[in-house]
Design brief:
alpha/beta; Rossmann fold; 2 domains; seven-stranded parallel beta sheet; globular; binds glutamine
């Protein structure tokens, strides 16, 4: 295989939310299953330094990498498709680029030169792309946003320049557009695609392939029309119709021989991917043998994008258990002690997801109490673990005014509190103070966790002693109450450098709270053990009903 990295640049046209990330990840998956070493990069033209401070309502989930970067949710898709851990080098924004260029300018690194978009900003973007490509056969680079956005221009200039530098056989452009179906005319329209390609050409980029998002299949004639009007090869017009599952997309692309034009462009020899395992799993996503009902208790249920990794991890577990997991979305703000039994009566498992701020907390606590008392399988993630301890403290230990200081700074019994320091994975003491600004003050990324032998947690992780999972939180369980909890039956089954990472109830078939986010490491081909164990417990509960 060549020592040089080949680049596939993916841009989007017409409008956003077409699934550019899924298309890019699908191509990456096919190439990985040919045997190439493939990585991916998302370059985002917005100005935020990272999405860490962006509201999930506006931007969907913040995906956390193993090395602790808060990244765009597309990185989650990349990892789930590619089954590779990505890092902070696999996502950057305009904000990050400008920060580092300005920092260098202040330091005097540019020796008095005038700092300009070209060459300095564009040069920094090119350097970052090259860095992400190092050591890989192929790097897929997705440019965020839509062609025509003002803020995207330096990024497009960067990929134009980089492709000139590496040559045609080492770089290709794929443009994803929308081919809308106009109902009243009964017609698919190619004009927006032509305009969007025209816009790209104006800045010096001629796409080598066009992927058309569409509700309807495109016939040969229409594909030929797009090829002719956009100046690309006939076999390089690929359709991407709406699918029941995103995991079908690589298979749909493969059926259309997408690797043929890619191989022609990049000079690859007869790429034949092995998608057998993938194909089997997708069949179980589409037509599973059984089903189970899961109550998903959260406060962002109108915006399911903010729980993307979690809902995907549930799909992975379901596929591996040949089960359809029906998610019953329960708005925690609407749950109270009067309606909790009615709300949760049909569910076989209850999940309380992570979250920030006091909204919806009391409803989550009611759901947890219901799961605990009725012995329904329960998984609490991050805030879901913290609240399961608060619920236990209130209702079992009868501790008055038990709370998290996130919700009441002066509560009498701070079950969840803020620690000023903790020891990080490298053994360094990290300082954390309550008064820090919001951005960049969380415990982030992968940390090792020691599992209690014989515990439920150890069992579902195949009797491992140590696991590594990712975090995104500010507050911690207060060890002061540990003995009291354990005496009453809520035991600590996971620990990391003295921090409480997991709790479970001894006298319950499956009641688990984890401070980490198991969903971030789940992949279609490798479901996360905690999620898998939880769904399995739900199936057992259903069968025993
Ligand atoms: N708000 C809690 C904390 O900061 C939990 C965070 C989460 O659920 N991701 O610790």
């Amino acid at each position: 295989m060549s020592k040089e990295t080949k680049y596939i640049f993916v841009t989007g046209g017409v409008l956003s939310s077409l699934g550019k990330g899924i298309a890019a990840a699908s191509i990456a998956t096919l190439l990985k299953n040919v045997g190439y070493k493939v990585s991916m990069l998302k370059a985002d033209p917005y100005i935020n330094v990272d999405p860490g401070t962006m509201s999930p309502l506006e931007h969907g989930e913040v995906f956390v990498t193993d090395d602790g970067a808060e990244t765009d949710l597309d990185l989650g898709h990349y990892e789930r498709f590619l089954d590779e851990d990505l890092s902070q080098d696999n996502n950057f924004t305009t904000g990050k680029v400008y920060s580092s260029v300005i920092e260098r300018e202040r330091r005097g690194d540019y020796l008095g030169k005038t700092i300009q978009v070209i060459p300095h900003i564009v040069g920094d973007i090119v350097d970052r792309i090259k860095k992400a490509g190092e050591g890989n056969d192929i790097l897929i680079v997705e440019i965020g946003g839509t062609v025509g956005d003002i803020e995207g221009l330096p990024f497009l200039e960067a990929i134009r320049a980089l492709r000139s530098e590496v040559g045609k056989s080492n770089g290709m452009f794929i443009h994803l557009t929308l081919v809308p179906y106009i109902k009243v005319a009964g017609e698919l329209k190619t004009k927006p695609t032509q305009h969007s390609v025209g816009e790209l050409r104006r800045i010096g980029i001629s796409p080598d392939m066009i992927i058309c998002r569409t509700e309807m299949p495109l016939n040969r004639e229409l594909k030929d029309k797009i090829a002719a009007s956009c100046g690309i090869e006939r076999n390089a017009v690929i359709e991407s119709p709406d699918m029941q599952s995103i995991y079908q997309v690589p298979l749909s692309f493969l059926n259309q021989n997408i690797l043929e034009p890619i191989a022609q462009n990049l000079n690859l020899k007869n790429p034949k991917p092995n998608m057998q395992n993938w194909d089997n799993l997708v069949k179980r996503v589409i037509a599973p043998s059984t089903e189970v009902n899961l109550a998903f208790v959260g406060k962002y249920i109108d915006l399911k994008e903010s729980y993307k990794s979690l809902t995907e991890s549930i799909i992975h577990a379901g596929a591996n258990l040949d089960t359809k997991v029906n998610i019953q979305w329960c708005d925690s703000e609407k749950i109270d002690s009067n309606n909790v039994a009615e709300t949760l009566k049909d569910c076989d498992a209850i999940l309380v997801a992570g979250g920030f701020g006091p909204r919806g907390v009391s409803g989550k606590i009611e759901a947890i109490k219901f799961a605990r008392e009725n012995k329904i399988p329960y998984l609490g993630i991050c805030l879901g673990m913290q609240l399961s301890m608060i619920e236990f403290a209130k209702n079992v230990l009868k501790l008055e005014d038990a709370n998290s200081i996130e919700f009441d700074e002066n509560c009498k019994n701070p079950i969840i509190y803020l620690i000023d320091s903790f020891i990080d994975a490298n053994g360094n003491k990290q300082l954390r103070t309550h008064t820090s600004p919001l951005g960049g003050t969380m415990r982030l990324g992968g940390y090792e966790c020691d599992l209690l032998k014989g515990s439920l947690l150890a069992k579902i992780y195949n009797n491992a002693n140590k696991i590594k999972e990712r975090h995104r939180h500010r507050y911690e369980a207060n060890p002061k109450y540990r003995a009291e909890f354990e005496k009453a039956g809520l035991i600590v089954s996971g620990e990391s450098d003295g921090l409480i990472e997991a709790v479970e109830i001894k006298d319950h078939p499956f009641f688990l709270g984890v401070q980490f986010h198991p969903e971030f490491t789940s992949r279609l081909t490798k479901p996360n053990p905690a999620i898998l164990g939880f769904i399995k417990a739900g199936i057992e509960y259903k069968n025993a009903r």
